[in-house]
Design goal:
By secondary structure, the chain is α+β, with helices and mostly antiparallel strands. Helices cover 14% and strands 34% of the residues. Among the domains are: 73 residues, Beta Barrel (Thrombin, subunit H), CATH 2.40.10.10; 98 residues, Thrombin, subunit H, CATH 2.40.10.10; 86 residues, PDZ domain (Pdz3 Domain).
Length: 371
């Protein structure tokens, strides 16, 4: 992609394998084979009122940040969120898989992970199980492997309950959160924990050669294979993340939770989902540079600069090392890619740049590409 700031680096990273997170842990996309026995379905399905007007969460403003919760509120959150979460089954000629998703429009659009429904792109059949136990066919809408975000649509439905998007930029470390989904085929599963960290650049492979990079929310809420695509919500029941990746001490993708889960921030997921529904594809804000994947550099080493692009206009050059973006430390090429994607199209960001040969440091203002 000639105008993509770090896309060539992502291609190289995909070939180099998964990025480890602390103590040699392996990242695993949480796709679970749909051969689990005793798969359960649960609960509710329809809004009251009987209106046929379409409600679309992507068109609604973000909800207000959640206040400090009172004891026992997880029960209220579960009651509110469970009706908006579905279990997704995908069957192809050679395999079957299962994940989770959040209903984002009353006429059937569902937000989930690309790796959950990837088989549908090659003719796989999608079936969705609602919380009242009913099943419906669903169609593939669009997906973006680079960000692991996808949208499907449940067929022949109306007046579905929808989840409300929260503002992930307002999250605080230590804030209580709830994860909802179908781990190991056990639908309507609710777990709770806290936001453990923010702005974790996490790269993972689906095992088929595709690599995704997310600027993740880290949580200790128990999430396992099958939770993928399901919501991470605040104590108001607002979607503030989409559970996508787990870290494990095992090398196998089916290892269980060790309290290191990662979710795609809701603000980012909302933007990409809107693009996928509107245009069928997703694009991201870019610096107009490529970065080298180097473990011996403390920062993001610029390998190339697109002529006439934002980085070129701001004076960036090959050999520069980016160590900060605004007030955020940048310690790797993935960190720069993830941080850039988290900003808006056309936004101006300030980079702290070091020239390794001279050791001189300067600040550079760069206006990101427009949509």
């Amino acid at each position: 992609m000639p105008d993509a700031e770090p896309e060539p680096a992502e291609g190289r990273a995909a070939r180099s394998g998964k990025r480890s997170v602390g103590l040699g842990t392996a990242l695993a996309l949480m796709l679970v084979a749909a051969v689990v026995t005793g798969s359960v379905v649960g609960l509710v399905a329809a809004n009251t009122g009987g209106s046929n007007a379409v409600v679309n969460s992507l068109r609604e403003p973000n909800a207000e940040p959640a206040p400090v919760p009172e004891g026992g509120s997880v029960v209220e959150v579960a009651d509110q969120v469970l009706p908006t979460v579905v279990s997704i089954q995908v069957a192809t000629r050679t395999a079957a898989g299962e994940g989770s998703g959040s209903i984002i429009s009353s006429d059937g659009y569902v937000l989930t992970n690309h790796h959950v429904i990837a088989g549908a792109e090659q003719g796989g059949v999608i079936q969705v199980t609602m919380n009242d136990g009913t099943t419906h066919p669903a169609e593939f809408v669009a997906s973006d492997p680079a960000t692991d975000i996808a949208v499907i649509r449940i067929q022949d439905v109306s007046d579905l309950p929808t989840i409300q998007f929260g503002d992930s930029s307002e999250l605080r470390v230590g804030q209580q959160v709830v994860a909802v989904g179908s781990p190991l085929g056990l639908s309507s599963t609710v777990t709770t924990g806290i936001v453990s960290a923010m702005n974790r650049p996490v790269r993972a492979s689906d095992g088929g050669g595709e690599s995704s990079l997310i600027d993740a929310i880290q949580t200790d809420a128990a999430i396992n294979p099958g939770n993928s695509g399901g919501p991470l919500v605040d104590m108001n029941g607002n979607l503030i993340g989409m559970n996508s990746v787990i870290a494990s001490l095992s090398s196998g993708d089916q290892a269980g939770s060790i309290g290191l889960g990662f979710a795609i921030p809701s603000n980012f997921a909302k933007r990409v989902a809107d693009q996928l529904i509107t245009t069928g594809e997703a694009s991201q804000p870019m610096l107009g540079v490529t970065v080298a994947r180097r473990g011996d550099v403390d920062g993001a080493l610029i390998a190339g600069v697109e002529e006439g692009g934002p980085g070129d206009q701001a004076g960036l050059a090959p050999g520069d090392v980016v160590t900060r973006l605004n007030d955020r430390n940048i310690d790797s090429s993935d960190a720069l890619i993830a941080a850039t994607r988290s900003h808006d199209f056309g936004e101006t960001v300030t980079l702290t740049v070091t020239q390794p040969d001279s050791g001189q440091t300067r600040q550079v203002e760069v206006t990101l590409t427009t949509e």
